[in-house]
């Protein structure tokens, strides 16, 4: 690979040094908000004070405090990344750009998944080289997860992780131009928990004007907990920690203790007389809203935003096959429908109504041959194709996400090109969704 001099970019908060390579330029660990320390872990994201001199943007960021997640024989490290990498300043973004030359390129802002408890910009799957190669500025976002990000507490704003993503979008609006991006052509996209957060932004009044397009990959427009459900999780966490269920009391607790009590919160019965558990027991953390995002789109920017939305054909297999729990395809499909399918359909229909035909729907159906060919078109399998990484050796082999077989020729190029086209023009290459004839574009079938 050719050796290049390290570039320096002047941002409103200070100068940042990145790296230049064959794909363009990469700037890492740029703060979009102040470090969430002590009581600040339960406060809204605060503006970063900036820095003197030139900040080192050549190394990855610390990550939000998070547990290690085990998926049995399936190697999910490319998805989850290294886990908790300690450091206070983790409310950061990475920027991958063709060049910081003040051109006006489309911008894509990625929000990672991880069940609202894990994930970071350090995950190998989120390498944005292919986006930069194809003329897109890619911004990946770290946000608070777990108790600091999503536990509902008296004296603290709800959905702090979502507020972090909003703050990151504000940073993009104010800063991305110096990285060669167009602040008026921003597409926010997310997968799993990140997709559900993206859907919530469509119903958030404060998000108006911050993005022009959105992509929801395996999320849910009906994935939020009710306030009553959230209170059950908060009460259980307070009991496990032996403190009052308030932000003031939780501010005295170190992050290590928050991680230690997570097993005590697993398996809580969150069903109520009016609501089922939207995450079917997979996580006690998530958005807390009085109205599901799909039912509140008129309050947010959804009517002015193009939407690309879809799911994988066998989402539920990720949660069953690696643990040896899959008894039938029906079981996996039912789990996937409960977690993602029903909420995605409702969001697609709701958006089509409020946006006047600016909705595009897909179904990703390529089947991974991992785990003796049983993983299939499971949750997360589309990501290597979206990021055009499907040929990477670390995704293959019997325990790799894509399995021992090579990826289908041309599929990564097709999927990635559709995402780039949508971010550039609002058209991924197929007809808009019609609620009267709800047909999805098949990818990889």
From TrEMBL:
Record domain Carboxylesterase type B: where: 6-320
Gene3D superfamilies: alpha/beta hydrolase
Record keywords, A-Z: Hydrolase
Coiled-coil region list: none
Cross-referenced PROSITE patterns: CARBOXYLESTERASE_B_1, LIPASE_GDXG_HIS
Family stated for the protein in its record: Belongs to the 'GDXG' lipolytic enzyme family. Belongs to the type-B carboxylesterase/lipase family.
Protein name: Carboxylic ester hydrolase
Species this chain originates from: Solihabitans fulvus
């Amino acid at each position: 690979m050719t050796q290049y001099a390290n570039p320096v970019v002047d941002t409103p908060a200070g100068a940042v040094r990145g790296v230049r390579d064959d794909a363009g330029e990469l700037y890492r660990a740029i703060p979009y908000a102040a470090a969430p320390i002590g009581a600040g872990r339960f406060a809204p994201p605060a503006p970063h004070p900036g820095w003197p001199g030139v900040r080192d943007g050549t190394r990855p960021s610390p990550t939000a405090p998070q547990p290690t997640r085990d998926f049995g024989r399936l190697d999910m490290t490319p998805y989850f990344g290294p886990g908790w990498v300690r450091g206070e300043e983790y409310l950061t973004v990475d920027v991958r750009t063709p060049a910081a030359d003040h051109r006006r390129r489309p911008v894509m802002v990625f929000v990672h998944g991880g069940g609202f408890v894990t994930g970071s910009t350090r995950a190998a799957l989120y390498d944005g080289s292919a986006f930069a190669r194809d003329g897109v500025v890619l911004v990946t976002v770290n946000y608070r997860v777990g108790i600091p990000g999503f536990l509902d507490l008296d004296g603290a704003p709800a959905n702090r992780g979502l507020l972090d993503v909003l703050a990151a979008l504000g940073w993009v609006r104010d800063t991305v131009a110096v990285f060669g991006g167009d602040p008026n052509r921003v597409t926010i996209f997310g997968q799993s928990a990140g997709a559900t957060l993206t859907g919530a932004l469509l119903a958030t009044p404060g998000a108006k004007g911050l993005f022009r397009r959105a992509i929801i990959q395996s999320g849910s427009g009906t994935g939020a907990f009710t306030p009553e459900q959230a209170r059950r999780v908060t009460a259980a966490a307070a009991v496990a920690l032996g403190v009052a269920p308030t932000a003031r009391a939780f501010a005295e607790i170190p992050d290590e203790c928050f991680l230690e009590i997570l097993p005590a919160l697993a398996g809580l019965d969150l069903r109520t007389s009016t609501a089922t558990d939207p995450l079917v027991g997979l996580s006690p953390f998530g958005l807390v809203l009085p109205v599901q995002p799909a039912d509140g789109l008129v309050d947010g920017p959804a009517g002015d935003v193009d939407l690309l939305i879809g799911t994988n054909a066998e989402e539920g297999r990720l949660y069953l096959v690696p643990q040896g729990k899959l008894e039938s395809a029906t079981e996996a499909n039912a789990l996937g429908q409960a977690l993602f399918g029903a909420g995605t359909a409702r969001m697609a229909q709701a958006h089509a109504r409020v946006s006047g035909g600016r909705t595009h729907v897909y179904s990703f159906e390529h089947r991974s041959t991992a785990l003796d060919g049983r993983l299939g078109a499971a949750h997360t399998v589309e990501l290597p194709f979206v990021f055009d990484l499907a040929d990477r050796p670390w995704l293959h082999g019997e325990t790799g996400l894509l399995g021992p077989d090579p990826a289908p020729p041309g599929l990564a190029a097709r999927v990635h090109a559709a995402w780039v086209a949508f971010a550039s023009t609002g058209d991924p290459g197929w007809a808009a969704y019609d609620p009267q004839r709800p047909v999805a574009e098949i990818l990889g079938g």
